[in-house]
Specification:
Order of helices and strands: HHH
Number of strands: 0
Largest sheet: none
Radius of gyration: 17 Å
Distance between the termini: 58 Å
Length: about 90
Amino acid sequence: MANIKSAKKRIKVIEKKTLRNKMIKSRTKTEMKKVLAAVKAGSRDEAAAALVNAVSCIDRAASKGVYHKNNAARKKAQLAKLVNTVGA
């Protein structure tokens, strides 16, 4: 445990940020899983709608610094590629 006051504060701040990042990542993963489920079911309309939500969620996470912009771009590209294979 830290003895210095500023170090104690940093620990509190890091805990808050970690919790926030976990919540955002969890939400993003859930949205991505919805896209995968729709693709697996073979529903193109459902998959496209889920993709819009997932992309929005990924962009939000990237803007908050949870994901690096290239990582976010890669995730979006992979999902879009997957959705495009449905019904093709």
